[in-house]
Amino acid sequence: MALESYFPVWDKLTANERELLKQSAVRRILPKGTLQSTGTDGCIGLLVICSGQLRAFIVSDEGKEITLYRLFERDICLFSASCMINSIQFDITLEAEKDTELWIVPAEVYKMIMESSAAVANYTNELMATRFSEVMWLMEQILWKRFDERLAAFLLEESNLEGSNVLKITHERIAAHLGTAREVVTRMLKHFQSEGLVELARGTVELTDIKRLQELSE
Whole-prediction pTM value? Predict the structure, then answer.
């Protein structure tokens, strides 16, 4: 899995820029459950995902988590190199939700190339705009949608990602994704079960009425 196969603007780089990336980029495997902080104190570099799945989340002062977005094959994580962008003032944490293989481009190298390549600079701006759009969409969901609608949408998303209607996920884990308390999730899931939308068992949630969950989420 060569870096050039996953770097979006590779064909627009000069020969020297390509060689610099090849020489500096490091290939890593993050086992499932690995946590990596970003921001000034944890600026590890640009992450280029080859396979697997990462979750980007923030943690409140009280320790409550909320998922901002996820990263999959061929996605780029810019915030892991946020120390090179003065306008980014918040930290996020990355978690490997599955065993994840990726390339790490050192922040100083990517910054050097970004300053010399208009194509890379434009791509970086587009990537940043996309990520902030995802965060703004999340804020809108939190502010304007009822929790039952958000939970239904989350369950459907998980089902699509896993390719199964039986989700091996705890109530605490769902709460971390949605930025709420485990008790709130448990209460709503029990309501869903009473309505025939899901079936609950220890460590699993089975989606039993996809159509009604879709109607609720919309």
Answer: 0.82
